[in-house]
Structures are given as C-alpha cells and as structure tokens.
Amino acid sequence: VNPVYQGKGIGAKLVSWGLEQATKEAVAVTLSTSTVAEPLYRRMGFNTWTVRDYPGIRMGVPSLVYWPAGVEVVAAREN
After folding, report:
1. HEC profile for the chain?
2. What is each CA distance from 49 to 5, 8, 10, 58, 66, in whole angstroms?
3. Which pLDDT band holds residue 27 (cuts at 50, 70, 90)?
4. For residue 62, with 0-12 CB atoms within 10 Å meaning exposed, 13-18 middle and 19 or more buried, which class applies?
5. In angstroms, rounded to a whole number, what is the distance separating the alpha carbons of residues 43 and 45?
6. 11, 29 in Cβ contact below 8 A?
7. CA nearest 65: which of 57, 56, 74, 78?
8. pLDDT digits (tens, 9 = 90+) for 38-63
9. Residue 77 above 60 pLDDT?
10. What is the pTM of this model?
11. φ and ψ at 23, to 5 degrees?
C-alpha cells in the first residue's frame, strides 16, 4: 500500500480478501515481508515459516505462512 494511504485498513482488507480465497480453495499462503509489514500479517494469522538472508540486506527477511483450517501441513523442501 502506498505510504500515503497506510494506516487506513487498506492492507488488512487486501490480505483478508486473499485469505478468504485461500480458505475457499484450501491452500496455504506464504510470503516474504518487510519488518514494517510483519505485524499486520501476524495479526491476520500468519506464522513464521523461515527467515532468509538475501545479498545486500543487513537482516534476515521473514517468510510467513498461513494455513487455513483443514489444510494439510506439509514440510517444505529447500531448493
């Protein structure tokens, strides 16, 4: 969300819509996020999947996952 419009609930509405779609389709959602947006995703039900290091970024980038109820949790394979 453009910084001018942040803090108005727009991001939460977008994430909520995406999670509704994932729940309907019974699929998990994963994403990599900034530490600024991480609290939003955690409030929406995401949990830490892994923290990755990328060249040129001083701290690890959190990868989060959301598992809708009834979706089988499977282990991810590292590439």
Report:
1. CCHHHCCCCHHHHHHHHHHHHHHHHCCCEEEECCCCCHHHHHHCCCEEEEEECCCCCCCCEEEEEECCCCCCCCCCCCC
2. 28, 27, 25, 19, 9
3. confident
4. buried
5. 5
6. no
7. 74
8. 889 999 999 877 766 556 655 566 78
9. no
10. 0.69
11. -65, -45
58 token code pair: 């001083």
Which residue from 18, 23, 25, 28 is spatially nearest to 73, judged by alpha carbons? 28
Q: What token pair was written down for 46? A: 């995401």
What are the tens digits of pLDDT across the range 2-26? 889 988 999 999 999 999 999 999 8
The amino acid at 59: M
Contacts of 73 (CB under 8 A, 6+ apart): 28, 67
